[in-house]
Amino acid sequence: MADVILETRNLTKSFKGFTAVNDVNLQVQRGHIHALIGPNGAGKTTCFNLLTKFLVPSAGHILFNGHDITRAKPAQIARMGIIRSFQISAVFPHLTVLQNVRVGLQRELGTSFHFWRSERLLDELNDRALALLAEVDLAGFADTLTADLPYGRKRALEIATTLAMEPELMLLDEPTQGMGHEDVHRVTELIKKVSAGRTILMVEHNMGVVAGICDRISVLQRGALLAEGTYAEVSKNQQVMEAYMGTAGGELQGAH
Ligand SMILES: Nc1ncnc2c1ncn2[C@@H]1O[C@H](COP(=O)(O)OP(=O)(O)OP(=O)(O)O)[C@@H](O)[C@H]1O
Ligand SMILES: [Mg+2]
């Protein structure tokens, strides 16, 4: 039996009669980088919003480590170790890179006040923040004002602030969106690196990224699960190819 960290059972979301997510049964295996892909309007973001509790399902269940979290609040699942990046972990532009990671660490600890009382604890916090920056290759930018960071580096900082919250499952919503070639490469490598000892579920449009780092791929179409498997499997799937036909430049072909 596979070790499943996240599971949906018959997950469904309707908006005024329109079913955006339709009876989806997902299983994310622990330790995997799992991608959710599909043509525009397939229901990827809606699915993500259900998993992160931004939306309440119309029907179905969500299980995390075997516990039913269908009715849990966003803050509760964050405490359980499900952390979404790139949307809630917005960084503060007027703080330095190091200060931003420290804020993330304090948020995780929930003890901001007494932390500032002790010089020793402050040093400990700095050490942890610097270690996280080193993990995402930002050690050289510690004192840089966040607003002055290049775009791809900001995303790396967002990953560091997410890591500060010690996620067991990281949810990444189009992590390479809007990036140039070099940043895409850097962030892809970074995701691969921080996936060690964690599980990652990501929505991703860039098939090169999906092909490069994802262990398993679920394809959504019109709200329903169309196919599942490795990149090699789903990219050969006739229904998947048809689903992608006529969409923004036949994305699946663009991966080679
Ligand atoms: N709040 C809402 N009210 C009504 N319809 C919605 C709502 N949110 C999403 N939808 C519809 O649900 C469908 C799925 O949308 P969703 O944003 O989940 O797709 P997606 O796969 O993320 O697409 P994209 O690749 O374009 O980001 C779309 O037809 C969308 O118009
Ligand atoms: Mg979307």
TrEMBL record:
<keyword id="KW-0472">Membrane</keyword>
<keyword id="KW-0067">ATP-binding</keyword>
<keyword id="KW-0547">Nucleotide-binding</keyword>
<dbReference type="Pfam" id="PF12399">
    <property type="entry name" value="BCA_ABC_TP_C"/>
</dbReference>
<keyword id="KW-0813">Transport</keyword>
<dbReference type="InterPro" id="IPR027417">
    <property type="entry name" value="P-loop_NTPase"/>
</dbReference>
<dbReference type="InterPro" id="IPR051120">
    <property type="entry name" value="ABC_AA/LPS_Transport"/>
</dbReference>
<feature type="domain" description="ABC transporter">
    <location>
        <begin position="6"/>
        <end position="247"/>
    </location>
</feature>
<protein>
    <submittedName>
        <fullName>ABC transporter ATP-binding protein</fullName>
    </submittedName>
</protein>
<dbReference type="InterPro" id="IPR032823">
    <property type="entry name" value="BCA_ABC_TP_C"/>
</dbReference>
<dbReference type="GO" id="GO:0005524">
    <property type="term" value="F:ATP binding"/>
</dbReference>
<dbReference type="InterPro" id="IPR003593">
    <property type="entry name" value="AAA+_ATPase"/>
</dbReference>
<dbReference type="InterPro" id="IPR003439">
    <property type="entry name" value="ABC_transporter-like_ATP-bd"/>
</dbReference>
<dbReference type="Pfam" id="PF00005">
    <property type="entry name" value="ABC_tran"/>
</dbReference>
<keyword id="KW-1003">Cell membrane</keyword>
